[in-house]
Design brief:
This protein is α+β, with helices and mostly antiparallel strands and 128 residues long. The protein has one domain. It is built from 2 helices and 5 strands. The strands form 2 sheets. The chain has a 3-stranded antiparallel β-sheet with strand order 1-3-2, with no helix packed on it. The protein has a two-stranded antiparallel ribbon with strand order 4-5. It starts with 22 loop residues before the first strand and ends in a 21-residue tail after the last helix. The protein binds iron/sulfur cluster (2 copies). One iron/sulfur cluster (SF4) binds next to helix 2.
Length: 128
Amino acid sequence: MVIPSMEHPCLRCGACCAFFRVAFHWSEAEPSLGGGVPPALTEKLDPHRLAMRGTSATRPHCVALQGTVGEEAHCGIYEHRPSVCRDVQPSWEFGVHSAQCDKARLAHGLPLLTSRDWLDGGRRGHLG
Ligand code: SF4
Ligand code: SF4
């Protein structure tokens, strides 16, 4: 793992991986269709969708999340994470706030990210 000079805020967070139910089309875990999400880490949600294990719980916590929320956290299947995970952007990384990021951080008692968190230019993507 290459550690950038400025640590990406997601690597000290992980809140969104322990807040939302992470649901996606079953084909994302079907290798014959190009899906790369490890099937063993998923569970069937309905005829069309899977969910990451742990994220349908009353207190969600994705089975792939490693580390401690709010301290040090990263996705254990970063290269193979579902599309919905790729879609979550940290607030202000690209100049706009993210409702999902803000909601998850608030729920875990973490301060909302601001543009100042990116002054030195974070270089890594979501929980990467
Ligand atoms: S996107 Fe936001 S809530 Fe998710 S890990 Fe990054 S900083 Fe935390
Ligand atoms: S980014 Fe990784 S740890 Fe976070 S919810 Fe998605 S699969 Fe789970």
